[in-house]
Specification:
By secondary structure, the chain is mostly helical. About 75% of the residues lie in helices and about 0% in strands. It has four helices and no strands. Helix 1 runs antiparallel to helix 2 and helix 2 runs antiparallel to helix 4. It is rod-shaped. It starts with 8 loop residues before the first helix and ends with a helix.
Length: about 100
């Protein structure tokens, strides 16, 4: 009698991708929203400190959520399962937020 074949790992990989994709997509959407607000806020003039504070807050939130998504993605087991292209959105959003923060208003 022959032993039964081992279970297929492709079904597990697909389910694991869906489970891991949920928090990554949520974090990346939050980062994208914060980055969008940072890029669309325009100070009325040099006296508009509230707008500058809003830009800084939006950039900081973008960097925080992007860093968290990046930390999740660089875990070896997640990177093996999800693929390296999941590193691109947090990097792009983080760079955009950092440039906006540096350039100010």
């Amino acid at each position: 009698m022959t032993p039964p074949p081992p279970p297929s790992t492709t079904d597990d990989q697909g389910c694991l991708r869906q489970v891991l994709a949920v928090p990554l997509v949520i974090l990346q959407l939050l980062a994208a929203w914060c980055c969008y607000t940072a890029l669309t806020i325009r100070p009325s003039g040099p006296w508009d400190d509230d707008a500058r504070a809003g830009i800084a807050l939006s950039c900081a939130l973008t960097l925080a959520t992007s860093a968290l998504a990046l930390l999740i993605t660089v875990v070896p087991s997640v990177r093996r399962t999800m693929g390296p292209w999941w590193l691109v959105p947090p990097l792009v959003l983080g760079v955009a937020a950092a440039v906006r923060w540096v350039l100010g208003g």
